[in-house]
Amino acid sequence: MYELENQAADPEQRIEAAMAAIAPWTGRVVLDLGAGTGFHGARFHATAQHLFAVEPDDGSRMQLLQRAVQLGLHNLSVIKGSAEYIPLRDQSIDICHARLAYFFAPDCLPGLRELERVMRPGGTAFINDNDLANGTFARWLLRAGYIKEGDAASTGAFWAAQGFTAISIVSEWRFQTRADLESVVQLEFGEDLAQTLLADHTELSVAYHYQFYYRTYIHSF
User: What does the pLDDT read at residue 101?
Assistant: First the structure.
């Protein structure tokens, strides 16, 4: 189901386009933090000097390794680790990508300290999270009680205080069938709530927007 969700999410790859405009990863060392099964990392591997994929879940790492073999990803190291514990040397990473992975404000300060340790001076970290104020998915989160009014503002203030710049990315989930859409919404919200949320939603796409935070590390750790 998560693979299906990844295939539907941000189909025009606007997140990668925004990253490339700020800090291209061609020829650079990239960290995919919270890499999951490697769906996104394969895109960075195409031009990166080397890709480190750090993932705490054993099952996801196994699928990541299988994907690496199938796609012939040779410049890739798959590592067991987490945001709070990245088993890499100090100042060894040029670009970090973390998408919907652990960094949920304000409970991510240990991960941010660890991230600062591994980033090279001049390196850029990108943290991609849900837009909590705009889009259908944000309204569903509010309706489900997963977020509350004011969370978007407090989250933005937190990231600004940590030295990150925010960019809003207008995107969507785009599905091929109604069954696929229903399956992913059930995955996120549970079967009963998904039926309620989808009762008046007839499209095969869902307005799913992102808040995209980035920071370039000028000073060494």
Answer: 84
Q: What is the pLDDT of residues 115-152, one digit of tens each?
A: 999 999 999 999 999 999 999 999 999 999 999 999 99
Return all residues near 124 (Cβ < 8 A) that are at least 6 apart: 22, 23, 94, 95, 96, 214, 215, 216, 217
Residue with tokens 């992975």: 101
pTM above 0.90, yes or no: yes
Our separate counts of H helices and E strands in the chain read 9, 9
Lowest mean pLDDT among 1-5, 8-12, 28-32, 59-63: 1-5
Q: Are 106 and 159 in contact (CB under 8 A)?
A: no
Model confidence pLDDT, tens digit, residues 143-170 = 999 999 999 999 999 999 999 999 999 9
SS3 148: coil
Q: What is the DSSP letter of 44?
A: H
Taking the C-alpha atoms of residue 220 and residue 47, their distance in angstroms, rounded to an integer, is: 26
Q: Residue holding tokens 């059930």?
A: 186
Angle CA 94–14–73, to nearest 5: 50
CB distance 19 to 97 below 8 Å = yes
